[in-house]
Write a structure and sequence with these properties.
By secondary structure, this protein is α+β, with helices and mostly antiparallel strands. It contains three helices and 14 strands. It is 17% helix and 38% strand. A hairpin with a 3-residue loop joins β8 and β9. The two termini are 44 Å apart.
């Protein structure tokens, strides 16, 4: 009887040791990432307008009679900041909306399916300026040599997150299972990290929203991606 009791105690001690070691060998961390590129796709069939280095990017639809749609693109260097074998637990995207002429509008995140560029074009408003070499435009993923399969960008139809945006201020998307899956996929396969497209209300005019880009003069207004993850010590 005593021998059996000693065996049970030994097994319990072993299990406690294993669980404790497993917990101690895994660290929970948070990284706040800065955007490495962003841009605005401006709806013109010629694909010769962009805003790669502008202080803002635009999402939604303007009041112009033609070419009124705007789509924002943004990407972060996930694999460059988070160890490769980490497990992503939660993700939030924070943007600062600087100006709006409309009421509350839903802004969706969609995973981009093709690489795209940010050139040196810079516009102070939503009309854009002539695209520079390497810019993403309505028809180009990289101006003026590479093209989208579909004008307006190649992106997943699945919504990764949605946030209603109204007056100027700070807005946060996530965390959602879809955002976590996107970031985990970018960590596992860095060459397929093309970021997110921000899709606004394109069914009605005067729904466009203006967000601070990574080039904005106010550093605190620039986009941020907060990633919480588990990192094994032997990672």
């Amino acid at each position: 009887m005593k021998r059996a009791l000693l065996v049970v105690v030994a097994v319990l001690l072993f299990l406690v040791t294993v669980v404790t070691a497993g917990t101690a060998d895994t660290l929970q961390k948070t990284e706040v990432l800065k955007a490495i590129k962003d841009n605005t796709l401006i709806e013109v069939p010629t694909g010769d307008l962009s805003n790669g280095a502008g202080s803002s990017f635009f999402v939604g639809r303007t009041n112009q009679p033609t070419g009124s749609i705007r789509r924002g693109f943004i990407a972060f260097d996930v694999a460059g900041k988070i160890p490769a074998c980490s497990i992503v637990k939660s993700v939030t995207l924070t943007l600062t909306m600087k100006r709006s002429v409309s009421g509350s509008q839903p802004i969706e995140l969609h995973r981009v399916l093709k690489d795209w560029g940010e050139g040196i074009s810079s516009s102070q408003g939503g009309k854009g300026v002539p695209a520079a070499k390497g810019d993403a435009t309505w028809i180009h993923s990289f101006y003026d040599t590479d093209f989208w399969t579909h004008p307006g960008g190649d992106f997943s139809s699945k919504v990764s997150a949605v946030q209603k945006v109204s007056d100027a201020g700070i807005y946060t998307w996530g965390s959602t299972p879809e955002m976590v899956a996107d970031v985990q996929a970018w960590l596992n396969s860095p060459k397929e990290n093309y970021g997110w497209l921000l899709l606004g209300n394109e069914t009605a005019p005067k729904t466009a929203k203006r967000f601070a880009s990574r080039h904005n003069a106010d550093v605190s207004d620039r986009p941020q991606l907060r990633v919480n993850f588990l990192q094994p010590n032997d990672c």
